[in-house]
Structures are given as structure tokens and as C-alpha cells.
From TrEMBL:
Domain of life: Eukaryota
Domain F-box/LRR-repeat protein 15/At3g58940/PEG3-like LRR: 3-227
Membrane-traversing stretches: none
Protein name: F-box/LRR-repeat protein 15/At3g58940/PEG3-like LRR domain-containing protein
Family annotation (SUPFAM superfamilies): RNI-like
A Pfam match: LRR_At5g56370
């Protein structure tokens, strides 16, 4: 109750920048839904909370001025993430870190320019309609069992930076076409806008190496290629020799 009152006071004062982190760790603590009424927010970062159920939130709830959103270890469902993205009409930056839960990210946004996902697992990341998206950054992502993250590229005509794409953690898909080693690339499976591409490669894994030519054909206009070599997976002397001369991209 006290936290809800604090948030209400901040809302009345027209707060623009809010970083709200729950300590100590307790992901069963639900953040008061009061923050959903902070229409003046331009930057919002939430850490170590359970997101309130958005099913009963009134449809008029909106973040008309929110430009930047960060979520760190926030327990939420896909519908809650869709809710907040749908009601942030000018949002430009989305950062998700330490997602430990079953989530899919469906990007339908006329304003998003950068999406950064670190140390997380998503069942699917779909660029459905993101005409302004310029950068999709994926680092430190992991699999759940044998399930990889499906990265579906739809309408994202301004996408110029993508990575790190990891064959061991990501499945690249265009429409209904899943990209595998040797897949015949067609105009519908090409993204000519991408200029910067980053790949993570396990030199000891033949599948990873075989995927590289196919992935590069999907991005025919790449000007800068970053290759991060996973040295822990190097399995033979030749691969070790090759990788010793390559530094991971910053």
C-alpha cells in the first residue's frame, strides 16, 4: 500500500524518468498497477518484479510519451508485454535482460528503433510489422532444453544491424521458410537492408560452420561482419589455430 501511494504521488507530480528495482530478490512481489497510469513517463526501467495482470486494466491505459523501456528479471506473460508495447505509441528503445520465463515477443510497432535482448530466453522473436526498427541486438541468449529461439523476420525495411545470431541458440525464419545449412535462398528470404551482421560460431561444430554461407546469402549487402568464436567448443587443432587469430567482436 505504501509503494502504491508513492507511485501515485509521483504520477501526480508528472514524473518522466522512473527506475524501480525490487530488493531483495522476490519475484512473487507484484508491482502495484499504479505505475500503469503514469502517462508522463518517458523512460521506465523495472527490475525483479512480478508484472500485474493486465487482463482487468482499462483499455484507455496508455504511455503516450514513453520512449525507453527496460525490463530486468520481470516475471510476466507474453500478453502483458504485448499490452505495454501496444500502448506505447512513440516507444523507440526496448531492453530485456535476464528473462527466465516462457515468453514470445511479437513486434508490431510504428516507432521502435532498437530492441536489445541479453541473457534471456524467448520462444519466438517475430518482427511482424516494425517499419522503423534499425537494430536487433541479441547477446548471451540461451536455450531451454533443446528448444531454440525462433527469430522470424517479417516487415522491417530499415533493419541495418543484427546479431549475434547463434546457430546453436537461434533458428532464422522468413515467412514459413526455416533457414538451414544448404537452404536455397530466394528474394523472400533476403534482407537487403542489413549492413552490420554478427554471428557466434563454434569452430568445433560442423553445423555452425555449414550455416555461415547460407546465412550470409540471406543478407547480401552486409558491409561489416563480426564473428565471435566460442573457444570452449573448439574441438580440433585446426579450428584452434584458426580461432587464435580471431578476436571476438566488441
Amino acid at each position: 500500500g505504501l509503494l502504491a501511494r508513492w507511485l501515485q504521488i509521483l504520477a501526480v507530480k508528472g514524473i518522466q524518468d522512473l527506475v524501480l528495482v525490487n530488493r531483495p530478490w522476490a519475484l512473487d512481489f507484484v508491482i502495484p498497477s499504479t505505475f500503469l497510469g503514469m502517462t508522463t513517463l518517458t523512460r521506465l526501467y523495472l527490475g525483479l518484479w512480478k508484472f500485474p495482470d493486465t487482463a482487468g486494466v482499462r483499455r484507455s491505459t496508455c504511455f503516450p510519451n514513453l520512449l525507453e523501456l527496460g525490463l530486468c528479471c520481470v516475471f510476466m506473460e507474453s500478453k502483458d508485454l504485448d499490452f505495454i508495447l501496444d500502448r506505447s505509441p512513440v516507444l523507440e528503445k526496448l531492453c530485456v535482460h535476464g528473462n527466465l520465463f516462457k515468453l514470445s515477443l511479437c513486434l508490431v510497432s510504428q516507432s521502435l528503433r532498437c530492441v536489445k535482448i541479453t541473457g534471456s530466453f524467448f520462444e519466438e522473436i517475430a518482427l511482424v510489422d516494425a517499419p522503423c526498427l534499425e537494430r536487433l541486438i541479441l547477446t548471451g541468449c540461451w536455450t531451454r532444453g533443446a528448444v531454440c529461439t525462433k527469430v522470424k523476420i517479417g516487415h522491417a525495411p530499415k533493419l541495418h544491424s543484427l546479431g549475434y545470431m547463434d546457430p546453436g541458440s537461434h533458428v532464422l525464419e522468413f515467412g514459413n521458410t526455416v533457414i538451414k545449412a544448404g537452404t536455397k535462398v530466394s528474394p523472400s528470404t533476403k534482407v537487403p537492408s542489413v549492413r552490420i551482421l554478427a554471428l557466434e560460431v563454434r569452430c568445433g561444430g560442423r553445423n555452425d560452420v555449414k550455416m555461415i554461407p547460407t546465412v550470409l546469402r540471406c543478407f547480401p549487402n552486409v558491409e561489416t561482419l563480426h564473428i565471435k568464436v566460442n573457444l570452449k567448443k573448439v574441438a580440433n587443432p585446426l579450428a584452434r589455430t584458426l580461432s587464435s587469430g580471431m578476436s571476438p567482436a566488441p
